[in-house]
């Protein structure tokens, strides 16, 4: 399990007030909070640090390379975070292969045991994704943010993988692709995605990329070669030749060397970082979308899902998925109960409470872990509190109405 610690970085000041400041990035991590409170900041920084760790494991980035010439800060410019650094910024990251610290303007890395490290495919799904669906030939647009360009490349590749129709997790609709153009298909209609509702335009790129990568990795196919530049491929071929042509190595040593080399290039798991999956979606569609993302994260050991959200429904539907997992465990071999659970929450979307973490960020730059009750997310959270504020305000309006009589 990865952990990240952040202080005095962008909108985040003291950071997490417990656990020594360490935010645990579990199988599912949800970040909630007001606009500008730092949800995306945490998600982007976690994505950046996991990517740096991956590059070091693959051998294409030397551990001491980021220590000089302000390179770590420059690397954060990919997510537009380079302006978030302050004189007293402190960042910590604990992965399964490396530990990173940034303090007093200096980045340091230290290797740890690599036995538990799984090489990830890291995908950042930006909130601006609906642009790719609303604008045909969006790849010709200039000056797009770097994360959107990267996501666009994966989206275009995923579109090519669609054969026939692909069911979508909202409204019972399906996706078809003809001559590279995506269409939304229902019982009595078929429409180009660029002409569809904003909910479809937000959902299709997110769902399709997540579906494609999760299924590709779970089936043992290797999307890792997508990430290699020509220079990296040349280095890989040289490393393989060096092992195979070395007559001084016994055959078993060659096989072990190739296995170690393979472990540095073959994708083992999928880290999916999604901004606002609820974007433009009706509550029932939010449930379908969350169930799909949970299905994807459950496909392969080591998969992780990080979500930023403003929606109370995401927390409510996660509660259903956790409760479903608890009931499945209690039911044992009772197929009647598990079948009944599956009618309410898909079994492959159920998730263990210990695999989930929810953090609330406030406008003061602090972070708090959401409390649990019997493993379930507490109703005492800021998103629910805002619903309670509505009830209070409406009650006050009713009191004023009574005074008018």
Written description of the protein model:
The protein is an alpha/beta fold. The chain has 2 domains: 2-125 and 268-403, 3-Layer(aba) Sandwich (Rossmann fold), CATH 3.40.50; 229-264. Helix content is 40%, strand content 22%. The chain contains 11 helices and 18 strands. The protein has helices spanning 39-58, 71-75, 130-134, 146-161, 198-218, 230-244, 251-263, 283-298, 312-331, 335-344, 382-403; strands at 2-9, 15-16, 22-25, 28-33, 85-94, 98-103, 106-111, 120-125, 165-167, 174-178, 181-185, 190-192, 269-275, 304-309, 356-361, 366-369, 372-373, 376-377. A 7-stranded mixed beta sheet has the order 2-16-15-4-14-13-8, with helices on both faces. It has a 5-stranded antiparallel beta sheet with strand order 3-1-5-6-7, covered by helices on one side. A 4-stranded antiparallel beta sheet has the order 9-10-11-12, with no helix packed on it. A hairpin with a 4-residue loop joins β11 and β12. It is globular, with a radius of gyration of 23 Å. The termini are far apart.
């Amino acid at each position: 399990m990865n952990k990240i610690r952040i202080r005095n970085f962008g909108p985040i000041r003291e950071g997490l007030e417990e656990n020594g400041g360490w935010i645990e990035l579990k199988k599912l991590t949800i970040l909630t909070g007001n606009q500008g409170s730092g949800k995306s900041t945490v998600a982007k920084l976690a994505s950046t640090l996991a990517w740096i760790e991956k590059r070091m494991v693959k051998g294409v980035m030397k551990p001491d390379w980021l220590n000089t010439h302000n390179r770590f800060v420059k690397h954060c410019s990919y997510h537009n975070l380079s302006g978030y650094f302050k004189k007293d910024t402190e960042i910590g990251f604990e992965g399964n292969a490396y530990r990173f610290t940034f303090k007093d303007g200096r980045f340091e890395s230290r290797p740890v045991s690599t036995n538990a490290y799984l090489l990830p495919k890291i995908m950042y799904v930006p909130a601006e994704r609906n642009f790719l669906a609303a604008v045909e030939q969006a790849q010709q647009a200039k000056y797009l943010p770097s994360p959107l360009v990267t996501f666009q490349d994966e989206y275009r590749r995923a579109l090519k993988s669609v054969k026939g129709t692909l069911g979508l997790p909202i409204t019972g609709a399906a996706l078809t692709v003809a001559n590279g153009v995506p269409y939304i298909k229902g019982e009595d209609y078929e429409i180009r995605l660029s002409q569809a509702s904003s909910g479809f335009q937000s959902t299709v790129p997110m769902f399709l990329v997540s579906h494609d990568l999760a299924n590709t990795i779970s089936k043992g196919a290797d999307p890792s070669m997508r990430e290699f530049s020509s220079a990296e491929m040349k280095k890989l071929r040289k490393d393989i030749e060096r092992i195979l042509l070395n007559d001084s190595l016994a055959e078993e040593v060659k096989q072990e060397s190739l296995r170690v080399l393979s472990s540095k290039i073959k994708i083992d798991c999928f880290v999916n970082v999604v901004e606002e999956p609820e974007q433009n979606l009706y509550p029932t569609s939010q449930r379908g979308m969350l169930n799909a993302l949970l299905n994807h994260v459950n496909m392969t050991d080591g998969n992780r899902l990080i979500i930023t959200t403003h929606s109370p429904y995401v927390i409510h539907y996660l509660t259903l998925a956790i409760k479903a997992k608890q009931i499945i465990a209690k039911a044992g071999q009772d197929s009647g109960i598990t079948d009944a659970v599956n009618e309410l929450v898909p079994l492959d979307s159920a998730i263990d409470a210990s695999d989930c973490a929810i953090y609330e960020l406030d406008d003061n730059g602090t972070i708090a872990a959401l409390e649990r009750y019997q493993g379930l997310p507490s109703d005492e959270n800021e998103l629910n509190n805002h619903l309670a504020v509505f009830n209070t305000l409406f009650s006050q309006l009713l009191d004023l109405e009574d005074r008018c009589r």
